[in-house]
Description:
Radius of gyration of chain C: 19 Å
Number of domains of chain B: 1
Helix content of chain B: over 70%
Shape of chain C: globular
Number of strands of chain C: 2
CATH architecture of chain B: Orthogonal Bundle
Largest interface: B-C, 44 and 45 residues
Distance between the termini of chain C: 52 Å
Strand order of the largest sheet of chain C: 1-2
Oligomer: heterotrimer
Radius of gyration of chain B: 21 Å
Largest sheet of chain B: none
Amino acid sequence: MSLGTSEGIGEQPVLQGSPDKVQRPVIKLHHISKTYPNGLRALKDVNIEVGKGEIYALVGQNGAGKSTLMNILYGLTMPSGGTIEIGSRPVTISHPMQAIGLGIGMVQQDLMLVPSLTVMENIVLGTEGEFKRWDGAIDMVKMRATVQTLLDSLECSIDPLSIVGTLPIGSQQMVEIAKVFWRNASIIIFDEPTSLLSPIEAEQFLQFVLALKAKGKTVLFISHRLKEVFAIAERISVLRQGVIVASLAKEEANAEKVATLMVGERMEESSIPPSAPGAKVVLRVKDVPLAANASKTAEMEIHSGEIVGIAGVQGNGQEELFDMLLGKAIPRSGDILFFDRSILRMSVRARRDAGIAYITSDRIKDGLAVDRSVLENGIIGSGKAMGNVLIRQKEVHRLIAKMVRSYKIKGGENQKQKVRALSGGNMQKIVVAREVMRNPTLLVAFNPTSGVDIAAKKVIHDSLREIAGAGNSVLLISNDLEELLELSGRIIVLYKMCPAAEFKYPEYDMRQIGMYMTGVRSEGLGE
Amino acid sequence: MSSMTRAGGYAKKIGLTVLFVGLIVVVWAAVLFLAGANPVLSFVYIFKGALVGTSNLFSTLDLMVPMMLLALAVAIPGWAGVWNIGGEGQFLLGALAAAWVGISIDLGNPFLDVFLALFAAMVAGLVWSSWAGYLKVKLQINEIVTTLMANYIATLLVSYLVNYPLKEAGSSWAQTAYIKRPFQLHHLVGGSQFSLTFFISTGIVLVFFLLEKRTRLGYELTMIGSNERLSYLGGISIAAKRMVAMLLGGAVAGLAGGLVVLGNTYRMKEGISPGYGFTGLLVCLLADNDPILIILVSFLFAVLQSGSLNLQLFSDIPVEISGVLQVVLILFVAAFRIMIRKKER
Amino acid sequence: MNNLISTIYSIMIRSSTPLLLVALGGMFTFHAGVLNVAMEGLLLISAFFAVVFSYVTGSALAGVVGGIVAAVILSLLYSFFVTTLNANNFAIGFALNIFASSLTLFLMRIMFKGQNAFNSPKIAPVGKLAVTTGIPFLDNYVFNFSILTYVAIVLFFMSSFLIYRTSFGLRLRIAGEKPQALESAGIRSNVIQFKASILCGICCGLAGAQLSLHNVRMFARDMSGGRGFIALAIILISNGRPMPMLAICLLFGLFDALSVELQGANLPPQFPLMVPYIMSVLVLFVFYAREKRGQSKRKNSISRV
């Protein structure tokens, strides 16, 4: 899990709006902070009060701390400091079971459903003992009837006997929600609930939440889609870099203001202007739908010498775009051209040989072999350069030594050192160095500085600039808006699987960018 | 990491290893005691039987030959994350092939003769591992089941051949005729069957040691075993490399068979292998797929096995105790490794 | 001809029994996500101790119980390393298989001075079901088998019931498919996997007793003969579903019976003996080749790693 922002909290923003002062708060979070063992501060001094029966929205960018905060409330993780009160009683929530006992239920982004089982089996999981018959079997008839009653009360038309794996995502989410009700939750947390839903399903979901309020339930929901937030929320808190920067009642807020608060003001201009794009078109994405439910196809061009940034909240098409450029996924229509040659049928190896390099978003999963050495990780993908039969020892050592020097990879001086002993930032430097030092014509980088300290970040940024400076190109997909603003000559904002807007340096209007990222201003790319 | 903590880390590691070795000795003593023997005396018998006296020592070394190669046969595919449990079958077919060449062909030049026989052994082993490898990379059929089945099939096939068509004329044992003189490798040390085979096998292990560390193939195999996804994204062709690894593993196992025929038994017979394939697997598990460790562990296991023969002579303990001691060692090492790893996290 | 069919039939039933029992045991671990690769060793060790206990006490029941206890102890050891310590599934499984082989051989030599087999009239065999109805068809074809065969049939139904209709079975299947769902409901998947291992041990224990106390009345070196691995293949092919598993076990029993019959014929004995192993590979091949063409989502939980 990467928290896209750099370590340490930056400026101390002035709290806007009226701080929560609710009459009968059912949830009170006092001075909650969370610092991870590696020093990363995810939350600092967060205070939230939620009234009974309120619909409370928590908004923010990736890595702002929203999920961390909700995970603390649901017992998935413990705060480093601060207290929690539920219904005016101080509590410690160290496990989801305790949260459930307090009446808190959470519908996470990753659904915790078992695809091969039926709806009812998924809903009652953990409490099947209630249905035990005399012979030890589960009384399926009774289970079905009870679950049916629950589904009816939720005005849900799903058949308790249908297999979860066969249901559309919207229905699956409904099952997850039903689970929460099964446990008699009175406080329900939703984490990015509409990210998987179609527009119609999302609309239905919003109506559903309003119905919950009518039943007296308290709802907390995390979202970055401000249109939805403003449709139903009564109070909105904005988290930025682990700190609450605003706590507004609906009447005090408008979408533009909130969007700006989410992304913050640019403190200083980029010290180094991005290099000017050349004339050659290196990569062309033609008419490619990023997902089946994309309302528009993606169309973009990358020129030589450019750094093009892809902005957006995670989950809006970045993964899909990267996979298509990598060759892991094939678009169902359209084409991707590299120097006027379609690469759709090319394997990863062929794309690499053609001059495209990749930095994946998860270095542990597929960026590094952590139990192998610095040397071994540094030469992977270099193909013929490392030698055909015998490994060219001298060249390879020299190459890695150069890598370690230029990128100041601490721990890499001993090239035999196992990568897992290095810090996250140094590990990432190996990944970046390895790709950059091969002089790719196009580097596709996905969150290249996730979980990386400031010094390492600078080194990585410099190397990206070098690529552009040499006449090559970089496609930078990132959660980190700061980074995109620093480096890119152009920024394309993705929202709901389509490019929503394009901005050119130096006209980077934070308000506008924020509004496109949150769907407030869903327009097409200007023609 | 400062040098202070590094030194401290080493000291801790050494300390743990010593503690661990001590624990093993205690457990082994316990096993021996339960079997009804005097542990101290037993260790002495084992030691003496394995290492004291030239004929004993060289017999022990000779025992290492099939162990090392069969461990290697598991290790090479193991580098790439594939399990080759078919060593036993590949060994038998290799032995058969070498014996057949040794009986039927004579090129006139002893070097060529031996080379041809060993080459045939490698090809036989390679062929036998190839179909299991193919099924794995093309259809993802679990290679453990296929290589195991292959063992049984090979054992029966060889049994048939040695009992019927290739049986030595006029003999009542299930064996072939002796291989011709040029093929028979001389026993170099009186009282043991130690021969050139020891040097050939050690040489092969060292060759693969170099291959693992210094060649592109070795590099790619280890990367595949470490992170498949990364290797794929790095342009390594996983299916092809895994297939190569399986072929090499089979060839090495076959070679082991050939060496045993040319250097020890001078013929092929039923029961030529007292489970070499599985001992090789145990060695490999303990040696963690590392060629140098394979040599060391093979030595240890050979000592145990060879020494147990002596133990059986002087006490009532059957020679199979060595197998029990070997597995106990493995289980402890496995637990030990896990605990070390947990501490490192 | 009639005789031939009836002989084949009875050998088939006799041979499928241990296979079915092992497969049932393995089925539990398969669904729980800790597929037990050491079943060969469990089978062997239980066959040995079944003989030992039967010999010493003169009671077949004691033999069966002894076999079960031995297998359960070994499977607890397996579970300890794989579930608790998170060691590699295969490595431990193999080590234990070899351990069982060495240990049984070793004990046989110590306890009985046997060389490769141990045989004695003092071994009390597991008898056939002593039921006569007077109806020849029933007497010859339905009630004529080892007690353990009927135990196996009962276990078959009980296992299906347990896995698909009870709360335990539900959690078992989830532990193998999506353990996080269990964790978030507050249930520890470790405990479930442990229980699955014990059930596996019990089933393999019964299988071993059938092998050494009924099919033959002795213990022979490595008498498990790869059945543990054939059962493994069967589980993979049937994806852990009981009905297909039963069918394939019977099929393999049939192969065994055919191979026994063929041995009487003018063929060298090795070829008929090869039949089960070749068939295992062929069946795997056919199944996986079809799967690949169908590209359906297959549960492949042979590895926890």
